[in-house]
From TrEMBL:
This is Redoxin domain-containing protein. Signal peptide: none annotated. Residues 23-114 form the Alkyl hydroperoxide reductase subunit C/ Thiol specific antioxidant domain. GO terms for molecular function: antioxidant activity; oxidoreductase activity. PANTHER family: OS07G0260300 PROTEIN (PTHR43640), THIOREDOXIN-DEPENDENT PEROXIREDOXIN (PTHR43640:SF1). Pfam families: AhpC-TSA (PF00578). InterPro entries: AhpC/TSA, PRX-like1, Thioredoxin-like_sf.
Length: 163
């Protein structure tokens, strides 16, 4: 399984460097309304941190999320980075990701430096704030790129269960 993570970490589209050594794995689900609503936020983070060499990869652990369904989702919701099926939710299980959306930030040495919610916009299923009060993923990436420790390395994501 670790080999698969190394292969994923080394995969990149042409002209997208990973000079930071950081990769954000975003577990998404094409049928989950919360995943759908977070794509714009992920796109904004990709736009901001991709310039600093952070790579973003979406992983889809739902069995029905075939490559064609994932590509349709990427087009419909304007997801600007690669989306790959997580067959049999193997990576989700390895990372112990429980819900979609949930993110994992990994350094090039394979160490997980942040895992959890993108932010705290959603407080429970069907319940969200007018806007997020804490931008966990943004804060983690900002800290890592500026040589500071991540203050909250683990948060609880709210979303659709990965089964």
């Amino acid at each position: 399984m670790f080999l698969l993570l190394i292969l994923l970490a080394s995969w990149q589209k042409p002209n997208h460097s990973n000079s930071s050594g950081l990769t954000v794995y975003a577990f998404l689900n094409t049928e989950c309304p919360i995943s759908q609503q977070y794509v714009r936020r992920l796109a904004d983070l990709h736009q901001e941190f991709g310039k600093s060499g952070v790579r973003f990869i979406a992983l889809f652990p739902l069995r029905t999320d075939s490559p064609a369904v994932i590509e349709q989702f990427r087009t419909e919701y304007k997801l600007p980075f690669a989306g790959l099926p997580d067959k049999k939710a193997r990576l989700a299980r390895q990372f112990r990701a429980r819900v979609t959306p949930e993110v994992v930030v990994m350094q090039s040495d394979g160490r997980v430096v942040y895992q959890g919610a993108i932010d705290d916009w959603y407080v429970d299923l069907g319940k969200h704030r007018p806007q997020a009060a804490h931008a966990y993923l943004h804060s983690a990436l900002d800290a890592l790129l500026n040589g500071r420790p991540v203050t909250e390395a683990r948060t609880e994501a709210v979303g659709c269960l990965i089964e």
